[in-house]
Input
Amino acid sequence: MSGPTAADRVPQFDVRGMAFVFAAVGVLYGVSVCPVVFWGDSGEFALRAASLELSPIARGYPLHRLLSWLAGHALGSPALGANAISALFGALAAALTHEGGRRLSGSRVGGFAAAATLAMSPTFWLFSGVAEVYTMHAAILAASFLCALEAPRSRGFRFALGAMLGLSFLHHRMTAFAAPGIAVLAFAGRREPEDLRGLRGLLVDLLVGFGIGIVPFAVLCATASRPAPPDAGNAFAWWFSDIFLGGGKNAEHLFGSGKRTFGGNLAYVGRWVVYNLPGPALGLAGWGILRLRRLRPVAFWAFLVFLPLHLAFPFRYDWTGDQFSFLVPVYVLAALLVAVGVAGVEARWGSRCAKWAAAATGLAPACVAVVLAFTSVGERAFPAITRAARIGLVLPLRAGDTSPRDVCRRNLDRLPVGAVLHTDWGDGQVYLYLQRVDHLREDVEIRIWRPVPRALQGAEVTGHGPVVAIVPAFNEQDAVAHVVRDLLALPEPPVVLVVDDGSSDATGARAREAGAIVLRPGFNLGIGGAVQTGFLWAARHGARAVIQVDGDGQHPASEVSKVLAPVLAGHADVAIGSRFLGTTGDRSTGARRAGMGWLSILIRLRCGRQFTDPTSGLRAFGPAPVAWLAEAYPEDYPEPQVLAPLVRHGFRVEEVPVSMQSRRGGRSSISGLRPLLYMVKVSVSLLLGSMK
Output
């Protein structure tokens, strides 16, 4: 074991520093608190905070709900109370991270750098302004880490650490993922590891503390657990899933049934990490982990356990809301490593340079947010949303933000008496809050769309509804009406569903005038999200088949029946129209043909099947793949990425020779240098996916 370090010689607690951080961050988060019900989780938690019904289900969060209920009564608004509780725990997490970073690095400046890194990360700041449980989880994790640092030397901290882990079961079972890393710190950090009696005493202290801390959760499980449904099968397995995994869907995600490949998850998670820890923070954290290996090897090995465990959730989940939310614990750990990196700057270049480095960790995220909000960089990064919406997306300042409530209130006001409002989950929580808490339009029935059940391999899924033609369209006003009219002119016309993916032109209006049903998401989803929206609609309406057709006019309606035929006849689950099996029509440029040949090779490596036209957007699907793809569809460049998963899941996939033509208008989303970027991203995704 290494000898005493600077971290062991600093005063045990910097109460003044913790109080300063808590007050400063508390003011920042306090002025950022959304005063009304916000979208999604915030709406759900605010709605729950209106009553005191506690249950130990995974999404019940009894401790958060109790505190939000108390704050709501004190402030006169359940929504404001729930939002304020998140801000309170956000400030507490920053203060605890400051002290943990100071203790770990032996540097007071390093502690402030850790607090700034966490407090200014955009996701954490946003979650501290609206009702989110992740700020409480961050506070519990930071407190547990601090207790673990002190546990080898203090029996009181050993009891506190055990109680903290037990109490965390009232909040989020993700905290259990920290237990192995905390055990490394608490056990291996002892000065005399060969003293077995001392180790046994440490374990006993932890277990006693845990037994005390878990009492409230055990009481709730005994008195308020939901009974297993009659068809649950194994009652204990159902209870475990309901209590610890968030229900059956979360359990599926946890055990690796996400829709993204490893490469897709790596790119997605990487973007969020860089966004929340830009430039200086990532560099300092990297240096911190290298210094930690030399200075505090026990803490180094603990972090090697911490980080992979907390990355496991975001790498498996296929719902983006949870995917970026589950990264919050990583920002706490990264902030602690930043403290060690800043201490290295201080040791090598002096206190002034260390202070500049600490300031940079807090200023860099703010600068990135300003650039994305107010410059042309943000326009290119978010091309489908307005400037005001972009500012609201990247700047976590929510004070006075009433837009979600006001938009939903206006929508409700327009509805006739007795109307049924079909809505997604995010807006639906706001509608329900307005109806049940503010008693607005109680005559309207609100129905929230839920994902359809996953079509398991080998299960028989039948559809008795119509054939649905899904037409994803983004700024295709010159071609979409022609596409719709041609589809409706077929001898057996399908139901034409145009997904207007946040177009800034008249795409939706012209499609509606031509006779299509038009779905318009609130913002640009990308081709994957747009097509999946269509699959959700088709699955909900029991479609017996789905035909996907591009909105730019490249796919003649005369070819639709060719692609549909094998699916309707039951010879295939999925049929793909290939321009390279036919002899006429547009066959793309030579460069694109070469690119498609390369993608075919990569897909063959993944699933053993050769496809001649892997990027074709003319495809037909039977009811089983429709039900599966409704909740498991790639987000980026989905046409080539979905082929291997379809084959691996046992679906029968065929190619059909078709003719295609040049687009009728608009501009391709893959132009200029984008084809090169397209090839690189898809290749990386397919190559990494083949290793999964």
